[in-house]
Amino acid sequence: MPPVEQNTVPFTVSAAKSLSELKTVGKARELPVVSDLEKMTTTFANQISENAHVQSAKQMVEDGMKSIVETETFNNLQGKVQELNENPRVQQTLTTVKSAV
Predict the structure, then answer these.
(1) Structural contact between residues 19 and 9, judged by C-beta atoms closer than 8 angstroms
(2) pTM score
(3) Does 73 score more than 80 pLDDT?
(4) Does 12 or 83 have the greater pLDDT score?
């Protein structure tokens, strides 16, 4: 039986790990532009994650998710999300944001 050529890489944890270890990724990281961009991105991400406003927002989201999980069932949550999506004011806001972006 002839070999079959795959057009895609199956996504698994091991595949994701192996993708980061590809020779081309290593070679690209040796380029000054790529290495500088990687350093700046890491620095920027660290600065953002240390920002008090971001920490506060993160804590609020985590607390909100925790309270939702503790107080409402998944079906009730789905119903509320559907109500939210059908809300005309929310739809107007989404339309405005999409057009601005």
Answers:
(1) yes
(2) 0.35
(3) no
(4) 83
